[in-house]
UniProtKB/TrEMBL annotation:
SUPFAM superfamilies: Cadherin-like. Pfam families: Cadherin. This is Protocadherin beta-8-like. GO terms for cellular component: plasma membrane. It is found in: Membrane. It is a single-pass membrane protein. It comes from Lynx pardinus. The lineage of its organism: Eukaryota, Metazoa, Chordata, Craniata, Vertebrata. The keyword Repeat applies.
Amino acid sequence: VLLENPLQFFQAELQVIDINDHSPVFVDRDMLLKISESSPPGTTFPLKNAQDVDVGRNNIETYIISPNSYFRVLTRKSSDGSRYPELVLDKALDREQEPELRLTLTAQDGGSPPRSGIAQINIEVVDINDNAPEFEQSLYRVKIPEDSPIGFLIVTVSATDADIGVNGEISYSLFQASEQICKTFEINSMTGEIRLKKQLDFERIQFYEVNIEARDSGSFSGKCTVLTQVLD
């Protein structure tokens, strides 16, 4: 601030306060789950999370599932502080009585008033497939120089499934990945090869936590984490 007569200088500090002007958004607004009717009550199914560019209490606070006879939803907190939904089976499924379910998942922020976004969960009740993919390692630790070229092979993750035929075929994907992770890494859905998609910058980010899902053609999936350290 500059004042004249007499000439004086004052230093002012402005604090920008976030307002709740964005609603939670699901990147995948139509999810498909194939769940075996042999799944026991208490089985959990992590779901893809919503994103909200607001911060603090204006970010996502809770997830809500539409009323139904079989499932409830829990709001979990990941290591980076973001919240994601986890579906919990409360009652055994019966494919002969109800082969399909359609639920509405709502992500609600903590603003006043709160804002929300929705996604549809389509559940196919199937039988037979009773083995989930298992990774050779639950945790991979890798180091990569920041000058590594785009397309550089970081690591290959591998999972196996005891089922045979189509029930044993595995597809790999990034799981609950932030926008930053999706821009930086890509995974081959068939081979599990994780490659660099964007140039790294040690001065900006030194560590990445990449969650990987291995899913078979049925309801089951396995998870692993790749901790990537960027070297200067």
